[in-house]
Amino acid sequence: MATLNIGQVCVKIAGREAGKYCVVIKKMDNNFVFITGPRELTGVKRRRCNIDHLEPASYFLKIKEDESDKEVIKAYETAGVLKKIGLKKPSPEKIKGEKPAKKPKKAKKEAKKEKKPKKSFKEKLLGKPKKKKEKKQEKPEKKPKKKPAKKTKKSKKKTSKKAKKKK
Predict the structure, then answer these.
(1) Residue 98 has pLDDT above 70, yes or no
(2) How far apart are CA 53 and CA 47, in angstroms?
(3) Which of 3, 14, 98, 167 lies 20 to 30 A from 91 at CA?
(4) Span 110-158, pLDDT tens digits
(5) In terms of Cα–Cα distance, which of 50, 27, 44 is closest to 85?
(6) 10 DSSP assignment
(7) Which domains are delineated in the chain?
(8) Closest C-alpha to 2, from 62, 56, 50
(9) How many whole angstroms separate alpha carbon 36 and alpha carbon 69?
(10) pLDDT at 74 over 80
(11) Burial, 104: exposed, middle or buried (Cβ in 10 Å; 0-12, 13-18, 19+)?
């Protein structure tokens, strides 16, 4: 078991976040620590983790206990760990937690109507409009199927495996 201190950069080796980098934020007890990625940077959520599931890396960040994700990202930058690990700094919108404004449903429908229909390959070559096939609106009625007559039991001759092989 490795001793993990606050600010130690680690790699998760178990679970769905395995192979991703994280930072120890707080020591819970001898077996558990509180970690963060942060999620915007490495994809690791802020959560409690067993120390057996962490592999300490050779990097160390100067942070306080229970530091916010913004401060952890700044500590990554000042220590120069982002470049060493190969991570990209997230955009300011992601750091703030803002989501881009969504268009109302009516605006989406209007935008779809305004788009011109795409020309097919034949239309592009020949310049002729494509004819649309009319769909059949009426479905023919299904006739009930007749059940076949029951077969009477016939006596079958039992043949041995040797007789079958000879045939």
Answers:
(1) no
(2) 13
(3) 14
(4) 666 666 667 776 676 676 555 666 666 666 676 667 666 666 665 555 5
(5) 44
(6) E
(7) 8-96 (2.30.30.30)
(8) 56
(9) 8
(10) yes
(11) exposed
Q: Which of 71, 4, 8 is nearest to 41 (CA)?
A: 71
Encoded amino acid at 146, one letter: K
> What's the token pair of residue 50?
């067993």
Closest of 34, 44, 41 to residue 66, by C-alpha: 34
Cα distances (angstroms) measured from residue 148 to each of 30, 105, 151, 154: 75, 56, 9, 17
Dihedral-angle region of residue 55 (phi above 0 means left; psi in -120 to 50 means alpha; beta otherwise): beta
At residue 83, the 3 state secondary structure works out as helix
Q: Per this entry, what is the length of the chain?
A: 167
Neighbours of 92 (CB within 10 A): 8
pTM of the complete model beyond 0.85: no
Cα separation values, 1 from 7, 30, 78, 158, Å: 17, 10, 29, 71
